[in-house]
Amino acid sequence: MAAVLQPQPKESATVDFTALERRLLDEFQQEFPLSPRPFAEMAERLGVSEAEVVETLKSLKERGALSRVGPVFRPKRVGASTLAAMAVPPEYLEEVAGLVSALPEVNHNYEREHRFNLWFVVTAEDAAHLEAVLDGIAEETGIPVLPLPMEEDFHIDLGFRLKW
Amino acid sequence: MVSHVDSALDATDRRLIAAIQGGLPLVAEPYREIGDAIGMPEQDVIARISALRDRGVIKRMGVVVRHHELGYHANAMVVWDVPDDKVQPLGECIGNYEFVTLCYRRRRYLPEWPYNLYCMIHGSDRNAVLDHVAQLVDECRLAATPHEVLFSRRRFKQNGARYLRG
Predict the structure, then answer these.
(1) For chain A, N or C: smaller number of CB within 10 Å?
(2) Does the CB of A1 have a partner CB in chain B at under 8 Å?
């Protein structure tokens, strides 16, 4: 069963990150260099060394603030994916969430405040595999799974402007 | 706006996507290291990523943050039941706000789930998120539109999407 991540204590983002870390997190969500030494280009802009950029990104990753440096794909352009929801009796929620999280096809899995209390995203290489995963969850838990596939994207993802 | 034309990804694109979907290696020459791993010259790695970005398969390339760890402790999915012929203008209105990180039309699942327009809002706390929702209701004229705000509680899993087996 996958580990359950508990909500973490509130803390001030401003205090926890250095000026360099904040700039790395905020200013390179969109214009990441597609050149052989991307971190050197970033370093030049930031007035630090390439090694310092790489080490700082590694540290941010280890601390969980950075998910990755890489691509965000437009949904439905690569493989098949859907959001899915389940109304899980609260006493079974942890168990069902663990079962769902353990599937490699599941990437996000959240508890939300609603009768439909478990929300997750499934991605797979094709629609048949996707359907098999959803059917498997419904069968194993005895709880219906609502498939809520995306049909249109209205947000141009330029990243998220952080308010420090 | 999504073009539903899935301009074909060839086998090489798919191999490359499998190699980068979890993020670039944090080394001085990340494109060279990826190329070495999949047998592709560095300049081809860069050219193909660039082409995927130009074609919109890659929405953006760069630093992907995790909101919770950055102090955005409240996260809500707001779902709206919008008349089908109004989805486009309302989706575009909602999707323009900087506190909205995603805005999608999704298929309804009747009768249990009538909502067809979704957006994700991150804020420092619940009240900040609710203020943002109120702003959307006001400025996108959604007062008569049924909606619900689903705050997240526990995060059981959060990974980058793995579309392809590496």
Answers:
(1) N
(2) no
Pick B23's closest partner by Cβ from A11, A51, A69: A69
Which residues have CB under 8 Å from A144's CB, separation 6+? A86, A87, A138
**Residue B104: phi, psi to the nearest 5?**
-130, 145
Contact at 8 Å (CB) between B106 and A85?
Answer: no
pTM: 0.76
Q: Which residues of B touch A24 (CB under 8 A)?
A: 63
How far apart CA A108 and CA B32 sit, in angstroms, is: 30
Model pLDDT for residues B33-61, shown as the tens digit of each residue: 999 999 999 999 999 999 999 998 898 89
Residue type, A131: E
SS (H, E, C) B83-121: CHHHHHHHHHHHHCCCCEEEEEEECCECCCECCCEEEEE
ipTM: 0.75
Q: What is the pLDDT of residues A120-144, one digit of tens each?
A: 999 888 899 999 999 999 999 999 9
